[in-house]
Amino acid sequence: MTKRVATVAAVAGFAVWGLAGPAFAHVEVSADKTAAGAPDVTLTFTGEAENDKAGIKSERVVLPAGIDPAGVTLVKAPAGWTFTSAADGFTVGGTPLKIGVDAVWKVKIAKLPDGETRLSFKTLETYGDGSIVRWIEIQEPGQPEPDNPAPLVTLKPGPSAAATSASPAPAVGATSATSTTTPAQSPVAALPGDEGSGGTGTWWIWVIVAVVLIAGGGVLVLRRRNAARAGS
Q1: Domains of the chain by range and CATH?
Q2: Measured distance CA(31)–CA(106) in Å, rounded
């Protein structure tokens, strides 16, 4: 009885492993720099072989938004494979690899996108027998991995983003104080008719003094005339 149970369990285990087998084969990608906005980044892709009848023939990669296909160059690929650029990505391919041999290739991109945290590289893997495996499903944060996930690179915030977030926002009170005190500091000398030099604003005082002196002189003259008439 015990021997039969063990046999059934073993068969069940192999059956489950066989059903789950394709899910273990992925296309993976890694980056030598993982900060958003980083320049001259090398991406390493690994396409895991899962076809037991044919080897991998080509890998077609669709680049995520923010990466210019014109700025992508080949660094390394399987022997005999070539690199072909496309409007939305690139393809590496050539003579099919041996059955069970993974495809490994490297490309350099001019710059990682700014402000991004997750980059998905949808990939179509073609085998020598014409079969295609589409690793194109986007992996969402906090969600189970889909059956055919697209290769994913997770990024850290770049230096510019970190500096921006660390900069303190201007205080509302300080802005208000500046706007209210600036008009009060307008110089009086800027007003029309005021020269801003000493004494010119008191000219009317000298006019009054002159009038008083003239009036006083006139009084003295009248008194002298009256006195002269009285004496005669």
Answers
A1: 25-159 (2.60.40.2230)
A2: 10
